[in-house]
Amino acid sequence: MRRRLPGATRGATVVELPAGTPPRRADARRNISAIVEAATRCLAEDPGVSMSAIATAAGVGRMTLYGHFESRSALVAVVVEHALDRAEAELSAVDVTGDPYDAMTRLLDASWTVTFRNGGLVQAADQALSPDLLERAHTQLVDRAKSVLRRGRSEGRFRKDMPLDWQVTAVQSLLHGAATAVHQGALTAARAPGLVTTSALALLAVPPAPSSGP
């Protein structure tokens, strides 16, 4: 069981703490929420961001930050857990029923939002977290995409002349590549989701039958 630590303000981060964690004072809860929110933003933009930079972004001192999170790995773990919980809620809400093409479009739209928001969190997780948590981070989209793809392939809506795992890998690469391009300024955030969806669906589309000639 885990105990929810509410943020101090409406809309603030809600951090999950292990059961048995002593109750925190209101100012401590505010600091923890501010740190997790700041770390989420900073790590999404720069997976190598320092603890000092995170403390500055959160408006707290290094002593305060380390008083709540004994190491960078401990902080990254909490940030990623929070990001995974939020992503799971958003992706679970996507309607993947009905026409597989339309379902994939909705899933791509939601996946773009999650991928762009989290940015460098995956890379930070790769450097700091356990294999179990990394596996959870990588399978959220994969399991849903595979389900829609299998149905679309069986119904003739998606091509079957390439491995399903390769199709999933290609879609993930488009999502992460677009997010990187936006963070680097090579692509606007407004244009990216449309390009991702159009490119992914073009990749998955059943190729036209070869012409039989005149």
From TrEMBL:
Residues in HTH tetR-type domain copies:
29-87
Q: Could you tell me which InterPro entries the record lists for this protein?
A: Homeodomain-like_sf, HTH-type_TetR-like_transc_reg, HTH_TetR, Tet_transcr_reg_TetR-rel_C_sf
GO molecular function terms attached to this record: DNA-binding transcription factor activity; transcription cis-regulatory region binding
Q: Which PROSITE patterns match?
A: HTH_TETR_2
Q: Report the superkingdom from the record.
A: Bacteria
DNA-binding region location: 50-69
Is the keyword Hydrolase assigned to this protein?
Answer: no
Alphabetically list the UniProt keywords.
Answer: DNA-binding, Transcription, Transcription regulation
Query: Does the record bear DNA-binding in its keywords?
Result: yes
The name of this protein is TetR/AcrR family transcriptional regulator
Q: Which organism is it from?
A: Mumia zhuanghuii
